[in-house]
Each structure stands twice: as C-alpha cells, then as structure tokens.
Amino acid sequence: MNLNDIPYYDLGIDLDLTTLKKETKTILDKFETKDYSSRFFLARKKYKKAWSGVSLWGSNGELYSDLSEGDYVGENKPTMLESYAPYMFSVIEKIYGKSPKSRVRLMRIRPGKSLLWHSHVQEHGQDENELTIQIPINLPKGFKYCVVDKDEFSWYKRLYPPSWFKSAQCFELEEGRAYYFNSYHYHNVYNNSKEWRDTIMFYIDYNHKDIKKIFGNKNNISSHGNIGNNEEVLKLFREDR
Ligand SMILES: [Fe+2]
C-alpha cells in the first residue's frame, strides 16, 4: 500500500472551524485575493477565471508572489496575515512540527468553476514524498474533489468530465478537517454551486519524522499500486486509526 494510491486521507486533527471561518472572513474583508496565473498556456485562461488566493506563508513573506507554478523566490516567510489569523498560523505550526514549511495559501474557487486535470508530481516537478494538504473552510454543498489514475490520463483528456474516466473517483470533503489530497495522480475540483470554495493549501515532506507521526507511522505505506482499488485501501486506513 502506498499513500499515493489513495485519493485522500483525513489527518485526524481536531480543528476549530468557527475560528477558521472567522479568520477567513477577516482576511477576505481586509485583503484582496489575486487571480492564479498559470505558466501553462491551456490552463492560463481557465485558472484565471476560476482560482485566486493570498499567501499565509510565501516568497519573502509577500502576499501574492506565489500564485503560479514554480519555485519560491527568496526566503519562505509568514506574511502580514499572521496578525489577522493567529489561529490559522497555529494550525500550520502544529501540522508542520519542526519540518520545513512550504508556501501556504488561502485559495478560492469561484462558483460554477473547475480546473484542468493535472498532476503535481507527473507534471510540475513535485517530489513524490511532498504531499498536498488541504483544509477546506468554506466548502459549498456538492463541491467535488476528483482523482484519476495517472495511467488512464493522456494530454488530450485534460478537459474530460470525470465520468469519461474508468478510474475517476469523486468525493466531498468536510469543512474544518485537514486532508492529504492526492497530487501524484491526476486531479481536478468542481464547484457546481453558487458559492465560493475557500481552503488552506500547502505541502509537507512525508519523509520528515514529525510529518510521519501524523500518518501514524504506517510502515505499510511503501509500494505502488492502483488508485482504482482505493476503497479497500481507505478501509484499511480507517481500521488502523
Ligand atoms: Fe493540484
């Protein structure tokens, strides 16, 4: 069993959703969010309309310098949002422990929008052990996270609806939970609602001991497999916890 074989995993951390929502509102009232600017031609227009955000941790502590693919510029530091969202920053500290931090962003998906199928590991140079974490804060009903097996994906399927893939798995997450969301295989999100989706998104290094602790030191997360069989894998995780 491999962590990369499951579409998502609840880290099992207790979070205060009311405070997360309150701090999100404060941030959105006081600061603007900026559109994501993809370096990829096909994604550029679609992402600009669908996706926007502001950084909690970012390049040189800046609010808007990490709204595209690629590496940090300068030093990764907390931004001025720290004084407006102390609880969010405490949650970030708690999850990272002493492991190195990545960019941490509050990311919004506009009502009625989706992204393109993409994989951070297959396409964007993300290491296999670098895991994507999502903490949904405002999650409209019907908002779907979807994952497709990398072996079923081809470039010309980038705009396919999930139902056109045999291995597609779509699921709804819960507000105020912290999740590992699979970015090894291809994934997309669909906001079929009239409300915005707001989430905190960042990356962790699975090899760090403080991070491994969150996953319960599962020694059996080691070999590759097929994400198509993940219902069984998920059950194993749940029984284990
Ligand atoms: Fe992604």
Comma- or semicolon-separated keywords:
241 residues, alpha+beta, Jelly Rolls, 6 helices, globular, disordered C terminus, binds fe (ii) ion
Description:
The protein has 241 residues and is α+β, with helices and mostly antiparallel strands. It has a single domain (3-239), classed as Jelly Rolls (Sandwich). Helix content is 23%, strand content 24%. The strands form two sheets. Strands 1, 2, 3, 4, 5, 6, 9 and 11 form an eight-stranded antiparallel β-sheet that branches. It is globular. Mean pLDDT is 88; it is low at 219-225 and 236-241. Bound molecules: fe (ii) ion. Fe (ii) ion is lined by residues 118, 120, 183, 187. The site of fe (ii) ion has 4 residues, from loops.
CATH superfamily: B-lactam Antibiotic, Isopenicillin N Synthase, Chain
CATH third-level topology: Jelly Rolls
Rounded to the nearest angstrom, the radius of gyration is: 17 Å
Structural class: alpha+beta
